[in-house]
């Protein structure tokens, strides 16, 4: 048996009774300690807790035993309140639902945003279909495909994470591509490559290839992690032999197809942001053999 003192790291309003001392079996895990804290302070649920060794900021893994963590009889742990939490799955759905709500508004109600009707060009129709299908696919993958290493994240981060999708690929992109300047009667469209069926078909084919390839890599990653675990493994096969993160690569490629098709500066800004910022970090030019510099461990959570 191991006696452990659990003290507060900083301000922990939901556990004002800390510090407390508890007795655990030697094979008890960090998750067991969190459950004990929750039993004492019901509002301080496990996802809000960060347990560390006294004087150390590094979080202890939930599946680590007290012995593995270096806790001996009379040892002390510090618990930090991470604040309100929200599930990663819910965060993803909130992010992707934004464009699914925003694009139909700009497309179907142009009088509200542009002051008059818009006779949509074929290019605009393609763009609308591509955007809606892309984010519908992302929602379905979030619900039925993705498995997450961490169950939750701080609630207030959802606003920062969602801004990328709601503002840039939502409002900014929708306003730019459905405006009269891209309509069927616009000089930008009439007699140009943006009204050429072969060009639009080629862009559509590239987009479809990228979307299906992206889905394939997500299914490959899912197969590496049994349900209910945080197991990690090295993926092989389609895409993974050429780039470190083919799921991100194909994601960006699909947006490149849309940006080329529309010629919209806003679409290109979204591509560039996907390359270097936000939740999508792609290693687009990382063409090294597996085991070399390109074989990173940057897989999605």
UniProtKB/TrEMBL annotation:
Pfam families xrefs? Steroid_dh, TECR_N
GO (cellular component) term, any one: endoplasmic reticulum membrane
Record's keyword annotation contains Coiled coil: no
Instruction: List each copy of the Ubiquitin-like domain by range.
Output: 2-79
Give the family, as the similarity comment puts it. Belongs to the steroid 5-alpha reductase family.
* Keywords per UniProt: Endoplasmic reticulum, Fatty acid biosynthesis, Fatty acid metabolism, Lipid biosynthesis, Lipid metabolism, Membrane, NADP, Oxidoreductase, Transmembrane, Transmembrane helix
Topology within the bilayer: Multi-pass membrane protein
Pathway, per record: Lipid metabolism; fatty acid biosynthesis
Q: Spell out the protein name for this chain.
A: very-long-chain enoyl-CoA reductase
The main enzyme category here is: oxidoreductase
Highest taxon in the source lineage: Eukaryota
Q: What is its EC number?
A: 1.3.1.93
Q: Does the keyword Membrane apply?
A: yes
Q: Where are the transmembrane segments?
A: 158-178, 198-221, 255-272
GO terms of molecular function: very-long-chain enoyl-CoA reductase activity
GO terms for biological process? very long-chain fatty acid biosynthetic process
